[in-house]
Structures
1.
Amino acid sequence: MMFDNMVKKYPLNISPEDVETMKGLISGRKERCKLGRTMLFLFEIVVFDFNGIDVDKSDYIARDCHAVGEKRNIAMTSPLDTHLTHSTRVIDGQICYDIKDANTVYELFSTCFSLHKNIYNHKTTRAIEYMVMDVLLIAQKHMRSAEYIDVLEKYPHLTDDSFHCINMTKPEDLAPARKIFDRIQTRDLYHRAHITPESIVHAAKNVNLEGVEQSLVADLTVDRVFIVDGCLWKA
């Protein structure tokens, strides 16, 4: 969508066929263009779902390692100048790696796993995510940010500055949003409360659930409760 808008807005002198080729290379979908029938390996560079070794992964790993102060794998994940990149060869139309680089590939996925486990899904990260969601929901009728996701002229302006703008507002109905923002700044974060099938059954039988048939509640037992996450977040 953003690429189409860029081609339409600026005099780039790109043919429609080249546009589809570039979109195919970006998305990794070789069926989008003619080039996908002759040079398959080109569609394994930016995004390659088959093994996950691509520029997209190496780029965000390098970015996030730098952001959180994890330095050990920055050089390895640089997408343009690494031993892994220079040792690759195209064999039978597919990008292949030397066996001596097996440990480098292992380190790539090990770092990815570490980021997901220790950073992206850390309890503090998740708590702040839920708080940011609440801020945006409260401020929606003023900022209308959800409406701008598909408006290409406005979407690039949906940055972290939005939170500073909210924090500087005066309307009283945005006071809860400002309070949450202040809690983030002072590390007064949401707490995680663990839930169990037993606690769900107990709550269901002791709380008046509007719109729920009492016969269903009466038949509810622990073995009929399936928990996906295992916890909930509370303010």
Note: The mean pLDDT is 83.
2.
Amino acid sequence: MEISTLSLYISLSPSIFIFYIYVFPHSPWLLQTGKFQQTIANCVEKTGRALHSGNLTAVKILPEFAGEGRFFDFDSKYIPASIDFAQVSPLCTKLCKDGHTVQTVEHLLSALEATGVDNCRIEITNLGRKDRFAEVPIFDGSAREWVEAIEQVGLKIATDQSGNSCEKLAPFLNETVHVWKNDSFIMAFPFQKVDITYGINFPQVPVIGCQWFSSMLLNDSFYAKQIAPSRTFCIYEEVERMREAGLIKGGSTENAIVCSTSRGWLNPPLRFNDEPCRHKVLDLIGDVSLFARGGNQGLPMARIIAYKGGHALHVDFVRRLKALN
């Protein structure tokens, strides 16, 4: 059925949102940003423990030619940070190619997308073991260490193999895009910049409850100060179940904020009152960065509204964007 205009009313405590959705004809295209593609100015090297496997992993981020985009170099296998290779496992996003897997990529990719590292090679190595699975270190559960490491070495304009710079393009929507699952959704409306609003709802955990966070000014400075420091969170009563499922083997109060349904936060203080909601924005940016192609921007120029999302819904959203192209 063709729909020209749809008014959608969504009532979500504690606020009521009225959305007017205008459905336009067809697909995202790429617009000029007025910027050149960038790469990292020098090598970044970090070593840390992985959240789910508990393994010790070394990561090296290296400069790359314009147009190459971001990709992992694992066991001499190149795995592009692209939706074409994305799979969702419980509580994280992973990239798989030719039998090799790199897991928990979302925080690193979020930092790279937000700080403007459009092209880079990410070498990842398991320390003390050799197999076809690697996991990005979790550090303190946020993207802050990645952002600080990137800021320390700086960025430079990327050039192609002929020495030419390339203009950075950004995907732009000319129709509303949405994905739903039960009462969770992500919607993206045509807009002149990137604007993200995210909502979460944990009625079983009163200290979290319903939270909303909006990033009206999503630039690298705002990201570094207001989003990157937000840490991953978990519900204490669910920890044992996750460990029995083979997850969070490297998890601790040093790399996550832990909340009990009855006792509240077990390792305060929070960095923000709405830190869990901000972390969801961090994850969303990392997952949507998988839409990037050829060293261009991954986040579409759109007003994105998400509610009760997770990695699976984020990846479905990116697949929906790709299907329009």
Note: The chain is about 20% helix and 40% strand.
